[in-house]
C-alpha cells in the first residue's frame, strides 16, 4: 500500500530559522489530508521537503518503504516520478497545447531524445485523452495553455500530475487564484481522483472552509510544529485559535459563507467551468 510516513522531519535554514520542528505523521492510501496554518507556519516547506525540492535537516520521509530523505542522483529522480505535484501557479508551458502539457507528466519515463521530440507511446496519449475527459477539458486538447482560464489551467495541472501514475499527490495552494465556485470544483476533482485511485494526498490550503468540506483529515501547523491533527469536524474555535491566533471565528464563518452565496448557484458544482 502507498503510505507516506514522516518521522521527526525538521528543516533549519542557514540563517538559523527553523521552518519545521520534528514533524511526524502518516498519510494512508486514499486519504486526502488538508494542511493549514498561518503564513510562515512551514506548510510549503513541508511539501517541498517531501519531494526534496528543499533538503530536510533531519528526519525520515518514507513512501512505500523507501526513505526519500536518503536518496541521491538517479535514485532520487526515479523516486520523484512517483510523486505528482499540483502547483498554485499551474506551472504549465504556456506555448504548448493542453495535450502536450498533460503528456509532460510522462517525461520522467521516456528517453531523452523521445522527450526532446515529444514522442509518447499510444498508451500515454490514450491515457491523456481519458484524463482530459475526466477533468472536463477533452474539447480543448489542442488549445494553447495561455488561452485557458485559471480554472482550466488548474484542471490541466491535475491531469498532468495523474498522467505520472503517482503514488503520492502533493498539492500547493490549488485554489488561491480561483473564485469560490471554481475552487470547489477543483477540490472535488482532486478528492475524487485520489479516492478513485486509492492515492494519498497532502493539500496545502489557506481556505479553512474548503479544507473542512473537501478533505478527510486536517493537520494544523504553527511555527513549524503540528498543533492539530484530526477530522475536519474537530476544527473548533479553540483549535483555530491555537493554529492562527485570536479571532472571532463565528463572525468570520458568517462573512465567508455570505460572500460565497451570490457567486455559488444551487447547481452541481462538479459541472465543468
Overview of this protein structure:
By secondary structure, this protein is α/β, with parallel strands linked by helices. It has one domain: Rossmann fold. The protein is 37% helix and 21% strand. It has ten helices and ten strands. It has helices spanning 43-50, 73-80, 98-103, 112-117, 122-134, 150-163, 180-197, 208-214, 237-244, 249-260, and strands at residues 4-12, 18-27, 32-36, 58-63, 66-67, 83-86, 168-172, 201-204, 217-222, 225-230. Strands 6-7-8-3-9-10 form a six-stranded mixed beta sheet, sandwiched between helices. A four-stranded antiparallel beta sheet has the order 2-1-4-5, with helices on one face. Helix 5 crosses helix 6 and helix 6 runs parallel beside helix 7 (180-197). The relative contact order is 0.17. Mean pLDDT is 86; it is low at 261-273. InterPro entries: AAA+_ATPase, ABC_transporter-like_ATP-bd, ABC_transporter-like_CS, ABC_transpr_PhnC, MetN_ABC_transporter-like, P-loop_NTPase. This is Phosphonate ABC transporter ATP-binding protein.
